[in-house]
Amino acid sequence: MKQKPSLAFVAASWVALFTGMLGYIIGLWNAEMQLNEKGYYFTILMYGLFAAVSVQKCVRDRLEGVPVTDIYYGISWVSMLLTIILLIVGLWNATLLPSEKGFYAFAFLLSIFGAIAVQKNTRDTQAAKAGVTEEK
């Protein structure tokens, strides 16, 4: 039977996800850059969150013996790497202060970590519930 994640870890995961996302989005809102640049960075965040959850799901499915096509598994990893590369290239070429560049990089990474942890907790909670249901 799978063990349900602790309430502390679940809470910490959600805090990491929302802190990273809100920090990143508030930073974009207040940034003095053109709207198309803001859209670029916002799209990278959203694409990165989706890609991170997809990678976590694919890896977990394969570990548990759930079929995952090689093409989807590969696309998930390429997407995750692509978002990181796009963020690096965008920040490298941006006319932002180094502290702002670091802020966006770390807010992005915190968001990605939070998304992966929330997805893991969701799977663990569902697996724990399914184990309890099977025992009854």
Uncertain runs = none
How many runs of DSSP E, i.e. beta strands? 0
Order of helix and strand elements from N to C terminus: HHHH
- Count of separate DSSP helical elements: 4
Q: How many individual domains?
A: 1
N-to-C CA distance:
12 Å
Bin the helical content: over 70%
Give the strand content: under 5%
Largest sheet: none
Mean pLDDT: 91
The best one-word shape is flat
What integer value in Å does the Rg equal?
A: 17 Å
> Which class do the helix and strand fractions yield?
mainly alpha
Walkthrough of the structure:
The chain crosses the membrane at residues 7-27, 39-59, 71-91, 103-119. Keywords: Membrane, Transmembrane, Transmembrane helix. This is YiaAB two helix domain-containing protein. InterPro entries: YiaA-like, YiaAB. This protein is 85% helix and 0% strand. It has helices at 7-30, 35-63, 70-93, 98-135. It is built from 4 helices and no strands. It starts with 6 loop residues before the first helix and ends with a helix. The chain has one domain (23-126). The chain is flat. The chain has 136 residues and is mainly α. The model has no long low-confidence stretch (mean pLDDT 91).
